[in-house]
Amino acid sequence: MNRRILREAFLKSLPVMAGYIVLGTGFGILLRGAGYGVLWAAAMSLLIYAGSLQYVGVGLIAQGASVLTALLTAFMVNARHLFYSISMFNHYKNAGKYKPYLIFALTDETFSLLSDGHAPDRCDPNLYRFLVSLFNHCYWVLGSVLGSLLGAVLPFSTAGIEFSMTALFIASFTEQWLTTRDHIPAVTGLVCTLICLIVFGPGRFLIPAMLLITLVLTLLRSREEGRT
Q: How would you write the pLDDT of the chain (228 residues) with one tens digit per residue?
C-alpha cells in the first residue's frame, strides 16, 4: 500500500519536477553569480523554499539589506500564501503529524496539484499530500544545488533568469484553465489584478489584488449559495 501511495504521489508531482529542476537551476546559477556557493543554495532551498522570494533574496543578500527590509519584502512577496492556506484549511486540518510540513511546503505549484482535495482510492490522503509536497521540495533543492554547481564551472549570463518564475506561474495558470470548466475564479483574478495594477502601480498592487480577489470570490460564492 505504501509503495502504491509513493508511486501515485511521484506521478502526480512529475509536472512540477520538470519546472522545479529548471527553475531551481536558474536560482542556483543566480546565487552563484552573486558570490554564494552550493551550501547557501542548498540551505536556502531547504529552509526558505519559496521560489520567487529566493530569487528576490539573492538581491537582498548581495545588497546587504537590513533584517527589517528582508522581513517586509518576504511578507509582500509571499502574502498570497495566506490565501492558499485558507483554501486548504479543510484538507489539512486533520493531517496530524504531517500538518507542520504540509503548511511549510505549500508552494504555488503544490497548491495547484492538491487544491482539488482528491487523493487516489484506498490511499491515506494525508500521507499522499505529504509525499507530493516532499517530492516537489526535493526537486527544488536538487535544481538549486545543480545550478550552483553548474554556475561554478560554466560561464552563464544571469540576465533575465528571474523571469523564469513568472513563466512557471503562467504555465500553472494555463494548466488550471485547460483542466477546469469553471473559469470565473481565473477571470476574477485577472480582472482584479489588472485593476489593482493600474490603481496602485507595479510595486504595490499584489496585496490589494489578493484582498480584492478574495472579496469578489466570497461575494460570488455567497450569491451562489443563496440561490441553492
A: 578 889 999 999 998 998 899 889 989 988 998 889 999 999 999 999 988 888 888 888 877 877 877 887 787 777 777 777 777 888 888 888 999 999 999 988 888 888 877 888 878 889 999 999 999 999 999 999 999 999 888 776 767 766 766 776 677 678 767 777 778 888 888 899 899 999 988 877 877 887 888 788 788 877 766 666
Mapping DSSP onto H, E and C, the string for the chain reads CHHHHHHHHHHHHHHHHHHHHHHHHHHHHHHHHCCCCHHHHHHHHHHCCCHHHHHHHHHHHHHCCCHHHHHHHHHHHHCHHHHHHHHCHHHHCCCHHHHHHHHHCCCHHHHHHHCCCCCCCCCCHHHHHHHHHHHHHHHHHHHHHHHHHHHHHCCCCCCCCCHHHHHHHHHHHHHHHHHCCCCHHHHHHHHHHHHHHHHHCCCCCHHHHHHHHHHHHHHHHHHHHHHC
Residue extents of the structural domains in the chain: 2-160, 181-228
